[in-house]
Amino acid sequence: MQVKFLVRKLNIIWALLILSACANPSATISGGSEVGYISGNGTANFLKIDQRVKAPDLASVDFEGKQINLNNYKNKVVVINVWGSWCSPCRKEATELEEMYKKNFDQGVEFIGINIRDSKVSATKYIKNFGITYPNIYDRDGKLILGFKNSLPANSIPTTVLIDKNGKVAARQLGPIDRALLQGFISVLVEE
Q1: CA nearest neighbour of 101 among 71, 75, 121, 81
Q2: 56, 147 in Cβ contact below 8 A?
Q3: Residue 114 predicted with pLDDT over 80
Q4: Domain map of the chain by residue range?
Q5: What is the pTM of this model?
């Protein structure tokens, strides 16, 4: 019993350390060495239907001033990508995500980007430079992504989270997307 409690406590501490390391992409630790973003290792999770929990309330305004609310995407699969303009892997995957958005849109799949730890000017330039047409939310302090802490948290940059048609967190990939894997997740969720 004590071992289980200790493991759970260590997992919570680990998660907090990861989130705090992401708090500022140019933060420094004692001694002056720079702490960058936490890069995911490509780990992917896909939850069975009975393991899924309701996605957090995700409501904000996108970069064009339009209201974005996850509750408005009922009966749709939603792909949420957490990114920063300062993140090299994010820049590498930006074009692929846009292509996947266009490819899957007619199947009832929506994409939402969440920009964190960035200036609004840099984030806006990123969206324009990569020709991203799906909605993106500015979440400088990462408060919106904390809502995923009880399911599949976005504890690296980039992270991609998928929401099923019932509004439940179904899958996550930490780190840059694997296009084939993400398409596989999307296809399974569209068929559910």
Answers
A1: 81
A2: yes
A3: yes
A4: 37-191
A5: 0.77
Considering the segment(s) 37-191 as one domain, its CATH architecture is 3-Layer(aba) Sandwich (3.40)
Return the DSSP state at 64: T
pLDDT tens, residue by residue, 27-37: 322 233 233 44
Residue 123 corresponds to which amino acid? A
Q: Is 175 left (phi over 0), alpha (psi -120 to 50) or beta?
A: left
- Dihedral in degrees, nearest 10, Cα atoms 93, 97, 85, 60: -150
**Max CA distance (Å), the chain:** 53
pLDDT of residue 29: 25
Residues 49 and 34: their CA atoms lie apart, in Å, by 41
Per the CB < 8 A criterion, the answer to whether 134 and 113 are in contact is yes
| pLDDT given for residue 40 in this prediction | 57
Residue with tokens 């009922």: 74
Q: How far apart are CA 64 and CA 83, in angstroms?
A: 18
At 182, is the pLDDT very low, low, confident or very high (cuts 50, 70, 90)? very high
Structure confidence at residue 101 (pLDDT): 98
